[in-house]
From TrEMBL, chains A, B:
Ranges for domain THIF-type NAD/FAD binding fold: 58-308
GO molecular function: ATP binding; metal ion binding; UFM1 activating enzyme activity
One example of a Gene Ontology biological process annotation: protein ufmylation
Annotated spans, Disordered: 382-409
The protein, known as: Ubiquitin-like modifier-activating enzyme 5
Record-linked Pfam families: ThiF
UniProt keywords, alphabetically: ATP-binding, Metal-binding, Nucleotide-binding, Ubl conjugation pathway, Zinc
Matches recorded under SUPFAM superfamilies: Activating enzymes of the ubiquitin-like proteins
Source organism: Lingula anatina (Brachiopod)
A single Gene Ontology CC term: cytosol
PROSITE patterns: D_2_HYDROXYACID_DH_1
Membership in a protein family: Belongs to the ubiquitin-activating E1 family. UBA5 subfamily.
Amino acid sequence: MTQHLHGKQSKVYSMASADELKARIAELEHELAQVKGKVGARGKIQQMSSEVVDSNPYSRLMALKRMGIVDNYERIREFTVAVVGIGGVGSVTAEMLTRCGIGKLLLFDYDKVELANMNRLFFQPHQAGMSKVEAAEKTLRDINPDVEFETYNYNITTVENFQHFMDRVKYGGLKDQMPVDLVLSCVDNFEARMTINTACNELGQHWFESGVSENAVSGHIQFIQPGATACFACAPPLIVATNQDEKTLKREGVCAASLPTTMGIVAGFLVQNTLKYLLGFGNVTHYLGYNALQDFFPSMSMMPNPNCDDNHCRKQQVEYQKREAAKPKPEVKEQEEEKIVHQENDWGIELVSETTEEELNAAEGEKPSLVSGVTVAYTKPVKETKDDSASVETSEQSLEDLMAQMKSL
Amino acid sequence: MTQHLHGKQSKVYSMASADELKARIAELEHELAQVKGKVGARGKIQQMSSEVVDSNPYSRLMALKRMGIVDNYERIREFTVAVVGIGGVGSVTAEMLTRCGIGKLLLFDYDKVELANMNRLFFQPHQAGMSKVEAAEKTLRDINPDVEFETYNYNITTVENFQHFMDRVKYGGLKDQMPVDLVLSCVDNFEARMTINTACNELGQHWFESGVSENAVSGHIQFIQPGATACFACAPPLIVATNQDEKTLKREGVCAASLPTTMGIVAGFLVQNTLKYLLGFGNVTHYLGYNALQDFFPSMSMMPNPNCDDNHCRKQQVEYQKREAAKPKPEVKEQEEEKIVHQENDWGIELVSETTEEELNAAEGEKPSLVSGVTVAYTKPVKETKDDSASVETSEQSLEDLMAQMKSL
């Protein structure tokens, strides 16, 4: 009687003795316990330990202290991060933070898991049909029962949900009525990015933007501190400039390409910089791009646009400048002078780029064939790069090259 | 009667009626079917389809063709990749390849899953105690039943296993008696790396080396084509130069730090370059480093060492040079001249680096405190960088800088 009988098939037991029925129950209960064994495979841990034993899930993280990288790794448990969009980037982001032992995660998404998502990490075929936040929470709780979760299966861009989303960012922190420590945008469309931007500008909330191109071979992360750096509205991506409804991107029969590699790398950059920001080690990168075809990694900083369309961004800029002015002069002065490199930009956006427009274009590869007027939005977040920011390739550098550059100066 | 009763607790049924018992059986069978539903959640797929429907697990990969990135994505099913070491990097590497629909994977590891591995992606707490290859194969088959697997739960460095390992690299391809297409080294120690190097030099097998530093904040990948590029023995890592037994690194109470971010990023770089190599798009990077503290990505190419200790490497070099000489001159000539930049190096190793020693050091951050004579092995694979390979930072570039460089030329 080892075959599996479902529903009405159980009627075959009508002639069985009570003992046979009880034996079958015992057998099923045992099997179910075994299969379910995965749930709660470890209990909660009250305090992170540095002890080096195979059974300690935090030993390799606490070793970051002994290695001199992080002063106080345990602080990770005090932080709350909101992840918006639990797709190819967001799900891996949430898993990395969960495995790092983050205090609390807020997960937002309104999509369902589909088999078409299986070319990216995290979700499994048996979860097809479940809501992404529900499936993610279940998997993540199994991985680390020490993490607290809040999940919201809704679209943040509707008026009603937007208010609730703002509320959870403002009051969803681990400590009662405190804001979350960081918002990570892992959404796949412009409208949702602008919604997060609007909320974070109003709240003065630090956040990271992230994105992967439709041709799957480039991506980026961008750290946004309202008032101090360019916000998402300060430097509109190309998709706005073309004035095309982005919904045309999701026409029937048209789908963007994606790869588990690119999305995993972008999630890795996002969480690595989140850890650096929260735990105070290394340097948090303001903009980091990834071009897979050439293994090219542009980085830059962007100052806010004084004429930004978002009035909360402009307010935050004024407040940021007041705070900066109130600081002792000598240290601040030097930093500011370093930042303002290009003052002749009409937009009021200063770029500190390590790469030229030509390099960017050369590294960018083929553009996807999209509907007219729409182009890849997130590989080139700023429209213009200064002509004088010429780059010199070390390995190919010659006297002739240097002479040519001197002339241009 | 919805609580779960295991083992001897079934005795509470002694007073129950046959109908109650049958109801309990039906309930248990239903629950078990649900829990088990995950296994084989989709059947095998005979041919990759580009159809854009939610139920197609390959739609987003096949879209790479429409986007102009890959000419013939379906070819992925013809390739076999061997992954050696199924730890923090190797497991994610295997998962990415599985989700990409690779034809066949050979997995090698002799370790068991431990709770101490839970700070990296892939393995789950309920798998603690299972062999890594067994746990990985089970998870990966669930994710994509189209992939073929061979798993070996042994240490490749013993004499007996080494012969078997060589044999599987040589004959383990999808087509009968053909070699695998690529070997990916994801091991965590020098001995295993040298073993893979020895095997690949003898077989002329292309492979990628990968590694993550003990302080968890840097890593690298390196593409090795025996005879054409430096092999792992051509440029010994620092750990050899110090003549210290690396086993001291694994003393009781001492453990390396690790992060899911760094390991996920290195796995991403490894699989992305594997895809570029197998499917023929973009440029395969020979050496790509990652420094998490500064988001710094050194890259370079290394020519083989004519005095390499490995005689198979020296033989492959002779054969490679013969093959190159037999090619039509004009195209080859130009490439070779470009490669040989520094001829005064005693080691016979030519570096084509985009970064200076100073930049490398500046970006390297704190060294872990290890036993004396041992240092981080894999962030600086070559001992000396030429003095004349000065680098120019675009954003800070001034007339003075250029003048100084001209003098040095």
